[in-house]
Specification:
This protein is α/β, with parallel strands linked by helices. It has 2 domains: about 5-165, Nitrogenase molybdenum iron protein domain (Rossmann fold, 3-Layer(aba) Sandwich), CATH 3.40.50.1980; about 185-305, 3-Layer(aba) Sandwich (Rossmann fold). The chain has helices spanning about 5-20, 40-50, 75-80, 95-100, 115, 135-150, 155-165, 170-180, 195-200, 210-215, 220-235, 250-260, 280-295; strands spanning about 35-40, 55-60, 85-90, 110-115, 185-190, 205, 240-245, 265-270, 305. It has a 5-stranded parallel β-sheet, with helices on both faces. Strands 2-1-3-4 form a 4-stranded parallel β-sheet, with helices on both faces.
């Protein structure tokens, strides 16, 4: 660890130690439960489940920020320390949360780690919110935690859980429709943000070694770069999916090559847009993908979505 990072962690740990002894708000005297989500899509689900009985703070919510480059701040430390319930992704996606929690005496019962719910293994793709099974599991765990912390509103939490699970049905239907129409169709991506969803649809997701290298901030091999470029030049893929929150010279060149070759490009994000629910966000991206694949099947002009 670099000296500056050690110093920052020491400051954050001090902030945490000064506030961790303060009890989180557990709906006493009609006050809402304080929930802190590391990522705003988990915060959105918490808001949908908690309604007026919760107050949710989402730390990562800027769509113009690369989540992998986020550095925890004293503000984030104070928010976590005062929370009745904390939810974060895990799988090495948001390690700053784990460091802060490790420096505190926050009861484990007050922490939901999505990677643990989904039983991921070390090295697995951390973009779990694109797995169609994730949010129903998250919702059930959150609802159970809310009922435990605030039993007076148990019936409300149970009703909102059922409403939330029902609201996922259009997303399930869309995935099934895309699977029926496009299973086996080859696509590629600059990194594996969308990989779980691509797998659910049944797409052939090419250039996975390249994607992993970009995700892990390592240089792809010359062989993997050449294979990616060859797929685009020879139109072996029907769409290029890219993370619109990050960019570098290499991925920029690949996007340009895709457009020159008439390959539709589809932008996906790691952060939920401020004006969308999780359900709307996912459906919008699936609709963009469907438009791109339909365009490619008809050999139409390139369709670009942001």
């Amino acid at each position: 660890m670099q000296p500056v990072h050690r110093a920052l962690l020491a400051v954050l740990t001090l902030v945490w130690s000064l506030t961790a002894s303060m009890p989180g708000a557990f709906a006493a005297d009609g006050r809402p439960l304080d929930i802190v989500a590391a990522e705003n899509f988990y915060g959105d689900v918490a808001e949908q489940l908690g309604g007026p009985d919760v107050k949710v703070t989402s730390i990562l919510s800027n769509p113009d920020q690369d989540p992998h480059l986020f550095e925890a701040s004293p503000t984030a430390a104070r928010a976590l320390a005062g929370a009745a319930l904390v939810i974060y992704n895990g799988a090495d996606y948001d390690p700053w949360v784990q460091r802060l929690l490790a420096a505190s005496d926050t009861p484990s019962a007050r922490v939901i780690v999505v990677a643990d719910l989904m039983q991921t293994q070390s090295g697995d793709n951390p973009h779990l919110w694109y797995d169609p099974d994730t949010m129903s599991a998250v919702a059930k765990a959150l609802s159970s935690a809310l009922i435990t912390a605030d039993p007076a509103h148990a019936a409300d939490y149970q009703k909102r859980l059922q409403d939330f699970l029902a609201s996922l049905q259009p997303l399930t239907d869309k995935i099934r429709h895309l699977h029926d129409r496009y299973a086996g169709v080859p696509v590629t991506a600059t990194e594996p943000v969308f990989a779980y969803m691509a797998q659910a649809i049944g797409l052939e997701d090419r250039n996975q070694r390249f994607q992993r290298s970009i995700m892990n901030d390592t240089e792809p091999s010359a062989k993997d770069i050449a294979a990616f470029q060859d797929d685009l030049k020879n139109r072996r893929v029907k769409a290029l999916i890219y993370n619109s929150q990050t960019s570098d010279d290499l991925t920029g060149r690949l996007l340009d090559l895709a457009k020159t070759s008439g390959i539709p490009v589809v932008g996906v994000t790691e952060t939920e847009p401020a004006d969308k629910t999780y359900q709307e966000w996912m459906l919008d991206q699936l609709t963009a993908l469907e438009k791109a694949l339909s365009s490619a099947s008809g050999d139409a002009a390139t369709t670009t979505t942001q």
